[in-house]
Amino acid sequence: MSENNTLYAGFSAKIDAVLAALEAEGVLPAGCPRNNVSVEPPRDASHGDLATNAAMVLAKQAKTNPRALAELIVEKLSADPFVTSAEIAGPGFINLRLDRAVWEIELDQIAGQGADYGKSAMGAGKRVNVEYVSANPTGPMHMGHCRGAVVGDALASLLEYAGHDVVREYYVNDAGSQVDTLARSAHLRYREALGEDIGEIPAGMYPGDYLVPVGKLLADKFGDQFVGKDEAEWLALFKSEAVAAMMDQIRADLAMLGIKHDVFASEAELQAAGKPEEAEKWLRAHDLVYDGILEQPKGKVLDDWEPVELPLFRSTKFGDDQDRPIRKSDGKWTYFGADLAYHMQKAEGADELIDIWGADHAGTVKRIKAAVAALSEGQGKPIPFDVKLVQMVQLLRNGEPAKMSKRSGNFVTIADMVEEVGKDVVRFSMLTRKPDAQMDFDFAKVVETSKENPVFYVQYAHARICSTMRKAAAEGIVPTADNMDLMGDDELALIKQAAQFPREVEAAARAREPHRIAFFLYDLASAFHSYYNLGNDDPAKRIIVAQQPDLSSARLFLVQQIGQVLKNGLALLGVEAVEEL
RNA sequence: GCGCCCGUAGCUCAGUAGGAUAGAGCAUCGGAUUCCUAAUCCGGGGGCCACAGGUUCGAAUCCUGUCGGGCGCACCA
């Protein structure tokens, strides 16, 4: 379960040793960079088990041609007992075939490591803070939050699996004017709960039904003491009460998706602690904040534009279009002003920061990255910081835009969606495409239990394995690793595919792309279904062959491990590995 | 006008640090079920990887430009 233990990393090291030997012999110049050398399974399995481009990459430096260098490498690699053949192909690829013992050992690894198979020490315990969701605490979660929530959560799990020490964080924006609106809307519902006819909810207030129980709660708690009173007497109180209620709601919504954050950081508390002031002071001292006047935005006509002097952060120094205000004209912090201080707070307990944002916030990435870079470097602790954008999801029903929810007032909630199609479908759907392309989510298609819907396909593979295990147990056949030599090419091919999992985890973690795991699982499920169906044409190829208990035990052992890998991958994505469909 | 993301089969999407003949599913056509779950499998047809240049042994992948779609562009969050 460490990076150096995976099969591919192991062979990578062997090839590296061969190159080092060639360097010692003077074939390769001393200290020549080998970081472009790749060791990976070839796309076409007929080429072998492993391929390396070493000869092509290094030929120039060795002052020879790729094929000549390849021959030298092949000569040394052939000496390895686990290498059964090493061939030069095409422009200079070296294709290796590995002894079947390699795969038998790998299968044993899966059995031995169980739920830990695929975990990696790549992250080396590096502390990564992943901030995701961070929806405003003004209502239930809606579709706009869903993709970022699932992708962020899966990414956090993936990094954890790959050996990082991960904190899942939610930034609660409880300090802006939107929570004032929330408090006023709640006050309206409070009066309603006390029997007043409040009529239509006025424009500018939150109209959703979800505030009705909040109003009732406030009425029960405070009676009529805040009716007809000046806003100053109740606003702060109603704010904190309503935000708390909304956060409970949001936590419940997230729980429906199987998401749980470690830290909920409050913007109001951040401000109360004077963090933004500290940041401003430092930035001013380093001439990164100055008082200036913004230009009128281009490409947009504004009737009420007035030039105002504001404290501006020099984000243009970092490639942004214009400098950005950190305070408003009333002296309060802008979102950005508080946010940069918030990122410094996160950086205190982390080695690396990742934010997951919706694509509608793409315009603000440059300024926050600039601010974090300036502050962290300036304060002597530069911190890697990445903002991952997830693109918009369009909700459809039979190809038409989906209707809004009554519960929410004006949007489709996550609760509605999960109730209708289920957590696993929602999560897997969001994870079977790369996040940086827009996607459509069609209720009608997504509930179909078919190939249209890959989650069932993968779950079915796992369920089929469980069912086979149950049947075998009933017949008194137990999986054993004792007769691996009975396994043929079909079985070995399946092991080879499952053996990619640790490598896949590391690659996905490195690229921060959890969707790769979903596609890997789909492919593995597909390979298993094919294998399973071999038994339909030829009874001798069934997993359980009554007359041959040794063979059956070996095959059972194999599919048991395939099931284990499917289970591990599904767990990583937060999807149930069901045992029956 | 500017910034960011996307453009791969009729449709929905993959394409692993630039690698070998670009892959799946759906749809379509043809097959497999007295047999471990057919929610499955096997096979056929279907591509100027938007377009044009460039980088190099090699480009769907990197760079530049053009076209098309999405998102954003006050002190909102």
Q: What percent of residues adopt helix (DSSP H or I)?
A: 40-55%
Count the E strands: 15
User: What strand order characterises the main sheet?
Assistant: 7-6-5-11-12
Task: Report the radius of gyration as a whole number of Å.
Answer: 29 Å
Which term fits the overall shape?
A: globular
Name the beta content range: 5-15%
Q: Supply the CATH class of the largest domain.
A: Alpha Beta
Structure in words:
By secondary structure, the protein is of the alpha/beta class. It contains 20 helices and 15 strands. It has four domains: 2-98, Arginyl tRNA synthetase N-terminal domain (Gyrase A, domain 2, 2-Layer Sandwich), CATH 3.30.1360; 127-173 and 262-390, HUPs (Rossmann fold, 3-Layer(aba) Sandwich), CATH 3.40.50.620; 177-256, no CATH class; 449-572, Isoleucyl-tRNA Synthetase, Domain 1 (Orthogonal Bundle), CATH 1.10.730. The chain has helices spanning 7-24, 54-58, 66-77, 100-113, 143-161, 177-193, 212-222, 231-256, 267-272, 275-285, 335-348, 365-378, 414-421, 423-431, 443-446, 454-474, 489-498, 501-511, 515-537, 549-573; strands spanning 39-40, 50-52, 83-89, 93-98, 127-131, 165-172, 263-266, 289-293, 309-313, 324-325, 352-358, 385-390, 393-397, 400-401, 439-442. The structure holds one RNA strand of 77 nucleotides.
Provide keyphrases for this structure:
581 residues, alpha/beta, Gyrase A, domain 2, Rossmann fold, five-stranded parallel β-sheet, four-stranded antiparallel β-sheet, 20 helices, 15 strands, 12% strand, RNA-binding
